[in-house]
Design brief:
Length: 360
C-alpha cells in the first residue's frame, strides 16, 4: 500500500496503521498492558513539559552527532527492540534494517525477531545492537551472544523488566495469536520452560519464576562478552548501582512501553533521578512516548544521552514498508534539527536543563 500524502508526522503513521491493520495484530503491536495508563502517560508526560528558546544564537556548524561506545552516530535517535516485525510487513526486520542504514540509525534487533539475526545483519548498513532476554539455560543465552558477536552486532541490550509478561487485555479481547509462519526464529530449538501446576488458580507463583534472572546473572553475562552491555528497564534509582556493579556499560530508562506493569511512571518523569544517580558514569538512554523532535530535545534536556523509538517504527513499517520507516525516521531527525535551531542550540551538548521552561 502507498503512504497517504497527508502522512507527515509519526502520529499520522499511527492513525493510518490502525486504520489498515488487522485489529488482532494491532492489539499486539500497538497495545499496552491492563488499562493502558502507563502507555498513555508516557505520551502525556512530554506534553506537560514546555520549552524556552534563546534568540539570535549562532547556528554555524550545527549538528546532532554523538559517539556511543566508540561509534560515531549522526543523531541521538535509535530504534528500540521490538518483536515480530513480520506482523507489520512481510519484509519484516530486514526492511527496518535497510531503512535504518539509509538514515544512519542504530537498530536494536529483538531476540524475538521474526527473521534471524544473521539475515538482518546481512542487509544492515548502520550499527546493529542485539536485545537479549536471559534464557532459563545459560548455554542458550551464550549461544545468542556468540551469534550476535559473529554477525557483527556492536552492543547487547539486556531487558530486565519482564520476568513475566504483562496483563495484555487488549490482545486477549482481540484474540491475538501468532499467524502461521511467524515465530521467534532466533529462539528455535531452545526448550520451553516446564512449569508445574500444583494447585488451581494463578500459575505465576507455582514455579514460573524459578529461573527468573538476578543481578548475579547480569554479572555472568558481562563476563562472557567484550561487547558493551546495556540494561533496559530501569525506573528506580536504587537499581542503578547494582546494574553498574554487575558490569553494565549503559542503562535504558524504560517501562517497556507500558506493556508490562500498568501504573508505572512515565519514562521522561523517571529519567532525571536515574541520570542523577548515574552521575555521568555511563550513557543513559530513554524510550517510551517519543513522537516528535521536540520530545527528543526534552529527553536530552532531562539528561538522556540518546532516545529509542519503538511503536512508531512498526506503524511506519506497516504503512509503507522500508520506505515508510526511512520516511518516519527522516521526519523525526528533521523535527529534531528544526527544534534545536528554533531553540538556539546548535549541538546536543548545548541542550541542557535551561531549555525547559520552569513555571514561576
Amino acid at each position: 500500500m502507498s503512504i497517504p500524502a497527508d502522512t507527515v508526522s509519526l502520529e499520522d503513521y499511527q492513525r493510518v496503521f490502525l486504520q489498515r491493520t488487522d485489529p488482532a495484530i494491532a492489539a499486539y503491536l500497538h497495545g499496552a498492558a491492563a488499562d493502558g495508563l502507563t502507555g498513555q502517560d508516557n505520551r502525556a508526560a512530554y506534553h506537560r513539559l514546555q520549552l524556552m528558546p534563546r534568540a539570535l544564537q549562532s547556528l554555524r556548524g550545527a549538528q546532532t552527532g554523538l559517539t556511543l561506545f566508540g561509534q560515531a552516530v549522526p543523531s541521538p535517535i535509535l530504534i528500540a527492540p521490538m518483536a515480530f516485525h513480520c506482523l507489520a510487513h512481510p519484509e519484516g526486520e530486514r526492511a527496518t534494517a535497510t531503512a535504518a542504514g539509509l538514515t544512519g540509525t542504530v537498530m536494536t534487533v529483538s531476540a524475538q525477531a521474526s527473521q534471524t539475526l544473521e539475515e538482518i545483519a546481512a542487509v544492515a548498513q548502520a550499527p546493529l545492537w542485539f536485545q537479549l532476554y536471559l534464557q532459563p539455560r545459560r548455554a542458550d543465552s551464550l549461544t545468542l551472544v556468540r551469534r550476535a558477536e559473529q554477525a557483527g552486532y556492536q552492543a547487547l541490550v539486556l531487558t530486565i523488566d519482564a520476568p513475566v509478561s504483562g496483563v495484555r487485555n487488549a490482545e486477549q479481547r482481540a484474540g491475538f495469536v501468532l499467524p502461521a509462519g511467524i515465530t521467534a526464529v532466533n529462539l528455535a530449538g531452545f526448550p520451553a520452560p516446564q512449569i508445574p501446576r500444583h494447585r488451581p488458580g494463578s500459575p505465576v507463583f507455582q514455579g514460573m519464576l524459578d529461573s527468573a534472572p538476578t543481578w548475579e546473572d547480569v554479572v555472568w553475562l558481562c563476563q562472557q562478552t567484550t561487547l558493551p552491555v546495556l540494561v533496559k528497564g530501569l525506573l528506580n534509582p536504587l537499581d542503578v548501582d547494582p546494574a553498574l556493579a554487575a558490569g553494565a556499560q549503559g542503562v535504558i530508562v524504560s517501562n517497556h512501553g507500558g506493556r508490562t506493569l500498568d501504573g508505572l511512571p512515565a519514562t521522561i518523569d523517571a529519567l532525571p533521578p536515574i541520570v542523577q544517580q548515574v552521575g555521568g558514569r555511563v550513557p543513559v538512554l530513554v524510550d517510551g512516548g517519543i513522537r516528535r523532535g521536540t520530545d527528543i530535545v526534552k529527553a536530552i534536556a532531562c539528561g538522556a544521552t540518546a532516545v529509542m523509538i519503538g511503536r512508531p517504527v512498526l506503524h511506519a513499517l506497516g504503512v509503507g514498508g522500508m520506505v515508510g520507516v526511512a520516511h518516519a525516521l527522516t521526519l523525526l531527525q528533521t523535527e529534531l534539527e528544526m527544534a534545536m535551531a528554533l531553540l538556539g542550540r546548535p549541538t546536543l551538548a548545548e541542550v541542557d536543563a535551561s531549555v525547559l521552561w520552569r513555571r514561576g
